[in-house]
Design brief:
The complex is a heterodimer of chains A (about 230) and B (about 50). Helix content of chain A is about 75%, strand content about 0%. Chain A is built from seven helices and no strands. In chain A, helix 3 packs parallel to helix 5, helix 3 packs across helix 7 and helix 4 runs antiparallel to helix 5. In chain A, about 40% of the residues are buried. Helix content of chain B is about 95%, strand content about 0%. Chain B contains two helices and no strands. The chains are: A mainly alpha (about 230), B mainly alpha (about 50). Chains A and B meet through helix 2, helix 3 and helix 7 of A and helix 1 of B.
């Protein structure tokens, strides 16, 4: 491991520990919901990094179509997989928060529905990629798909702001009178949230780097195997 | 409190196993590449035979 990687991973670990301590110790107990509100810090951080990952996939896909350099396709592929893991965690933590606050694990509310659509769309990206054998066609197809798929991200973000929903809007005013679990952020809550977002963004960058390296190595191996196979023909 | 602990445990478990999965996959690919390179490089084969 190179020295800059050690510093990067070390900083991420320190910030993650600090964020966890802030969530459990520094952040105040919310008056109405109690301790379960602390899930908010995990939930918002995973949702943010999940959508950030899809934005990276979008940028990587545009860059691939412009340059046709394989590294951009590898980055997009890695970003979608990491984003899917993070979005899955956002859905699970959201469900665990919903149970005591909404009295249900799941409801087909606009925010939850659009999040599920986003999750399915990006899962399909990974499944469909594997269905194309030619590497060039696969990369081109995946790039176009990732660009179109990104439409689901702003729709998910705006769904709770434009439609009637029970999902609370913590950052900014809520337009829905049905929103349940709404709460005001105190300064300590804001500090904890910002620290969590920074720590999670760093963790995301580490995961993305690790997954990108796997993808690069995997494609290098595929290339080696293909050239060996060709030499035996 | 139970929901919070569950969320926290799921959260770290997923991250831990995902990192473990990535590290193992990377190592498996690198080992396979090393084996292929050794097969393609006769000098390495000779060294290997001497050993």
């Amino acid at each position: 491991m190179r020295s800059w990687e050690r510093i990067w991973i070390g900083t991420t670990i320190v910030l993650m520990v600090m964020a966890t301590l802030a969530v459990f110790v520094y952040a105040p107990r919310e008056a109405k919901m109690g301790d379960v509100q602390r899930i908010f810090y995990f939930h918002i951080s995973t949702a943010w990094t999940g959508f950030l990952a899809f934005a990276v996939a979008l940028i990587g896909s545009i860059a691939y179509l412009r340059t046709r350099a394989a590294r951009w396709d590898q980055l997009s592929h890695a970003a979608v997989e990491v984003g899917l893991v993070l979005l899955t965690m956002a859905i699970i933590t959201g469900s665990l928060w919903a149970r005591p606050v909404w009295n249900t694990w799941w409801t087909w509310d606009p925010r939850l529905t659009t999040t599920t659509i986003t999750w399915v769309v990006y899962l399909a990206y990974l499944l469909l990629r594997n269905a194309v054998e030619n590497p060039e066609i696969r990369a081109r197809f995946a790039a176009v798909y990732a660009i179109v798929a990104f439409v689901t991200v702003p729709i998910t973000y705006l769904s709770a702001r434009l439609l009637r929903t029970i999902h609370p809007i913590v950052l900014g005013p809520s337009v829905s009178a049905e929103a349940q679990g709404q709460f005001g952020l105190t300064p300590r809550m804001v500090h904890t949230m910002v620290l969590s977002l920074i720590a999670w963004t760093l963790l995301f960058s580490v995961l993305l780097w690790m997954r990108y390296r796997v993808q690069r190595a995997h494609e290098a191996l595929e290339g080696m195997e293909a050239s060996i196979e060709a030499s035996f023909r | 409190m139970g929901y919070l602990v569950a969320a926290y445990l799921i959260f770290w478990s997923v991250i831990f196993f995902y990192i473990l999965y990535l590290a193992r996959r990377q190592r498996a690919i690198e080992e396979r590449m090393d084996r292929l390179q050794a097969r393609l490089n006769p000098d390495l084969w000779e060294e290997h035979d001497e050993l």
